């Protein structure tokens, strides 16, 4: 069962792989949002045959798309915009929850599981050559990640009753 499922997942990954010879995008996905949530992240694995860097991204579903990095600082998850994500030749760089991600901001509507989000990624080489890669990223549910579990309602309140 597991191997069949895995095979299906690989097939999807191949379809999602950009057709460009130099840069490969695998396993792209976007995290679903809940109503009122105006931003979400897109995640993927990037690999390039030559040194390059991811400098920007865009999507028809969001007027503001930024490249972000999340990191732990003083026990708090901090998120900031970065000018680029370096892609050393041949090395797989993962955009994942808790690390680099493509941030989709000011969403006009919720993004639901089962949708596909088109993304255009722009890469720039050291020589300043730009190229774009189109990706169709499926939307996955909110809880599908290896991100730290959110702290919900922990039963920390020990009662004072006897
Ligand atoms: Cu972000």
From TrEMBL:
The keyword Nucleus does not apply. SUPFAM superfamilies: DR1885-like metal-binding protein. Keywords: Signal. It holds the Pfam family PCuAC. The keyword Signal applies. Residues 151-162 have a biased composition (Basic and acidic residues). InterPro entries: LpqE-like (IPR007410), Lxx211020-like (IPR058248), PCuAC_sf (IPR036182). Residues 128-162 are annotated as: Disordered. Residues 1-21 form the signal peptide. PANTHER family: BLR7088 PROTEIN, COPPER CHAPERONE PCU(A)C. This is Copper chaperone PCu(A)C. It comes from Comamonas squillarum.
């Amino acid at each position: 069962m597991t191997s069949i499922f895995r095979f299906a997942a690989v097939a999807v990954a191949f379809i999602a792989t950009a057709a460009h010879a130099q840069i490969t995008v695998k396993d792209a996905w976007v995290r679903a949002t809940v109503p009122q949530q105006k931003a979400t992240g897109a995640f993927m694995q990037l690999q390039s045959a030559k040194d390059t860097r991811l400098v920007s991204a865009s999507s028809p579903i969001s007027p503001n798309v930024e490249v972000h990095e999340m990191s732990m600082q003083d026990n708090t998850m901090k998120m900031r915009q970065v000018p680029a994500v370096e892609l050393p030749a041949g090395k797989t760089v993962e955009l994942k929850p808790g690390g680099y991600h493509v941030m989709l901001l000011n969403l006009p509507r919720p993004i639901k599981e089962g949708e596909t989000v088109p993304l255009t990624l722009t890469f720039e080489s050291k020589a300043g050559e730009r190229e774009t890669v189109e990706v169709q990223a499926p939307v996955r549910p909110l809880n599908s990640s290896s991100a730290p579990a959110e702290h919900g309602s922990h039963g920390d309140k020990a009662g004072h009753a006897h």
